[in-house]
Each structure stands twice: as structure tokens, then as C-alpha cells.
């Protein structure tokens, strides 16, 4: 029998690193720390080994399809599937960043939404019965949904929304940001928030689609880790990375057959209503 296996994307530092640390202590199986940069990823593994932990490493760039495909093949060949997937990799521009909003929108959506979607397309078919999938989103995403015009928000919140339609909405946001018309079209003035709104909505859709899946007891949820002191927040925040990892790890380790939460957005282990 292959060992159980967990993968955490974007985990050479910050919240992802803390999630790997916690899973190494609590998950019964192999835990993979992944990073775009192989050198940084292997250094992170060495740092955890100094703590007496034993994560494994695999290179992964969620914006590179070949990199995603390489990981998928590796997991399929070595483990015959995947038990836990934590979609943590993402980027956020600093408040004072001078990059044009059009660039911020394009890059944020490409990594945070499209990259996460591409990883899910490759790895969700590998998830084994009783598997757990967690996408690290943000309350900035629920805020973005609240700040949309009622007409725009209704499209994101539609219970019959398809993946293709969601992708089109995010593409429309990027195009509108490029034209400077995103607020006129009912989108919020936040590239990061809108990209994470996409992740929250995607999670709900994926859970809905699992209702017709023959695999037993797969749970998929999104969460906000909180305001965490990491490079992304310029080391401002109210939580340490280990504290920020608590809700993602809680969802990754939900016991068999609990049934809930499913397709939800959580913060501090509590469901946040967004629909």
C-alpha cells in the first residue's frame, strides 16, 4: 500500500511553511513542501529537518503547466493518488506598490486564481476517497464580493455558475482593469481581493460538482488564515505563521465521514457567509 500523501503549494516560507510544519507533526503520511525555486525549497526542507521533522520536496510553479504536470505524474506513479491538497501559493502586491493596476490585476488573477484552478484540474482527479482539499483564500475575497455592484455580485454568486463562466468573469475583470473601466463594470478596486473572490467561488463550485462523484467523503473548502506576519504582509499582522496555519490544517485534517464543512469559506475555524 502506498503511503498517504499531502501536498502544500507555495510552502517554502510564510503560512505555507507553517502548514507543512504542522502537517509533519499531525498527518500520518508523507508531506510535500513545494516551491517554484528548487534551492529555496530544499533549504526550507533542511530548516524543518533541524526541528526533527521530515518533509519531502517537489518543485512546483503553479503558473507553469509543465511543472504542474510533472507533479501530477510523480504523485500518480509513486502514490497512486493524493490524500490532502492545500492550495496555498499566491502573491499580493504591497499597498505602496507603484505597479499599474492593470498589471496587478493580470498578475494576481494569473497566479492566485488561474494557477490554483490549473493545479486543481490536474490534482483533483487524483484525490482519494476521504481526501481533503483546502484553498487558502482571504477575507479580502469576501470583501471584494461585497463591494461588487449587485448585478456583478449576482453573477459570481449564481448557484448555477459554471467553471467556464467563472473564468470568463475573471478574464473580464482583467480586461476591464486594462481599460480602466473595472469600477464602471461593477468590480471592486482590489486585484488581490477579486482574485481571491474567484478562489472562494471556485471552491463552492468544486464542492457542488463532487455531489455526483463516485469517490466517497471528499471535502473541499476555502479559508482565510487571518492577518499573519509574513513577507506578504510586510511582517505586519496579529498572528504568527503557525497561528495562521491553524484553520488550513484543521480543514486538511477533518476526520473521516464528518460530512461538513463542504464548499465553505472559513475564518478562525468558523464558516463565513458570502453567498
UniProtKB/TrEMBL annotation:
Gene3D superfamilies: NAD(P)-binding Rossmann-like Domain
A Pfam match: adh_short
Keyword line: NADP, Oxidoreductase
EC number: 1.1.1.184
Enzyme class: oxidoreductase
Family (UniProt): Belongs to the short-chain dehydrogenases/reductases (SDR) family.
Entry protein name: carbonyl reductase (NADPH)
Organism: Saccoglossus kowalevskii (Acorn worm)
Encoding gene, per UniProt annotation: LOC100366455
Amino acid at each position: 500500500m502506498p503511503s498517504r500523501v499531502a501536498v502544500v503549494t507555495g510552502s517554502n516560507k510564510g503560512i505555507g511553511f507553517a502548514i507543512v510544519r504542522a502537517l509533519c507533526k499531525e498527518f500520518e503520511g508523507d508531506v510535500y513542501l513545494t516551491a517554484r525555486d528548487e534551492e529555496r525549497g530544499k533549504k526550507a526542507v533542511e530548516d524543518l529537518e533541524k526541528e526533527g521533522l521530515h518533509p519531502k520536496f517537489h518543485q512546483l510553479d503553479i503558473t507553469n503547466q509543465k511543472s504542474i504536470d510533472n507533479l501530477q505524474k510523480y504523485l500518480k506513479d509513486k502514490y497512486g493518488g493524493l490524500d490532502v491538497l492545500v492550495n496555498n501559493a499566491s502573491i499580493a502586491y504591497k499597498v505602496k506598490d507603484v505597479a499599474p493596476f492593470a498589471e496587478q490585476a493580470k498578475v494576481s488573477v494569473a497566479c492566485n486564481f488561474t494557477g490554483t484552478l490549473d493545479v486543481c484540474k490536474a490534482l483533483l482527479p487524483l484525490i482519494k476517497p476521504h481526501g481533503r482539499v483546502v484553498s487558502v483564500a482571504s477575507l479580502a475575497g469576501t470583501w471584494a464580493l461585497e463591494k461588487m455592484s449587485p448585478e456583478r455580485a449576482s453573477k459570481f454568486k449564481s448557484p448555477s455558475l459554471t467553471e467556464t463562466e467563472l473564468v470568463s468573469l475573471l478574464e473580464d475583470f482583467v480586461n476591464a482593469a486594462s481599460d480602466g473601466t473595472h469600477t464602471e463594470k461593477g468590480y471592486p478596486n482590489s486585484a488581490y481581493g477579486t482574485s481571491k473572490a474567484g478562489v472562494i467561488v471556485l471552491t463552492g463550485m468544486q464542492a457542488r460538482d463532487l455531489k455526483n462523484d463516485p469517490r466517497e467523503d471528499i471535502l473541499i473548502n476555502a479559508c482565510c488564515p487571518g492577518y499573519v506576519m509574513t513577507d506578504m504582509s510586510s511582517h505586519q499582522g496579529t498572528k504568527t505563521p503557525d497561528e495562521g496555519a491553524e484553520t488550513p490544517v484543521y480543514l486538511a485534517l477533518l476526520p473521516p465521514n464528518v460530512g461538513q464543512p463542504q464548499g465553505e469559506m472559513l475564518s478562525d475555524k468558523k464558516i463565513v457567509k458570502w453567498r
